[in-house]
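#dry-run=false #mode=assembly
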Amino acid sequence: MREYELIYILHPDLTEEREAEIHARLDDILQRTNGIILLRDDWGKRKLAYEIQKLQKGHYFLLNYLDAGTANIELERELRLNADAIRFLTVLADEKVKDPAERIATAKVRAEEQARRREQREREAAERERRAAEVAGDSPRRGSSEEEEE
Amino acid sequence: MELVVKQPSAKKRKRSRLRFVRTKICRFCSDAEAELDYKEPKTLRIFLTERAKIIPRRISGNCAKHQRKLTTEVKRARHLALLPFTSSHS
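#status=ok
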């Protein structure tokens, strides 16, 4: 078994159902090749360092899996044919995994960690939004008062 | 540095020695926890110039092994748009 890391960037404006559909298709391929999914991480929508297909943002996903080495060709073909996937990269993380069970256990710990981080990120995003709403709520009032003065 | 064929004047030699400011210890060899990973563009950014070029080994002080690692990781990060290939054009 080998451990792989697959990062793929999806179009930022997809519906959640469409995203879930793409994930499911990748999972299907892995199931067919008897691969084991260790972890799927949602990095959220990030700003791209440069424009890709005129897009400024992308939705990043990390898929960590164990496989004998047949799945990556299929996975990459799927992503290449999918117009909603704007970039992907497969990296061989470990060439010889001796104990898959141990990997699965550590992946579980990491998944929990990531869930915690995601929660925090969401909290922070909500905070930012609230602050932005406050600022937005302030400025129109100021604008209207100026108009009244005129 | 020892191989000086022509003996430069004392003034010149002093200046050239002063210009060499470099970190001599590879920070990834001395710190076991510090690691290079394409998923962490923040740490990779330290080794890029403002124009997003990779800083050479003779300036960054990385050892050969870690400089090689740095190059592959930066290139991976660039492909995933986590790092720029260059500063934005205007």
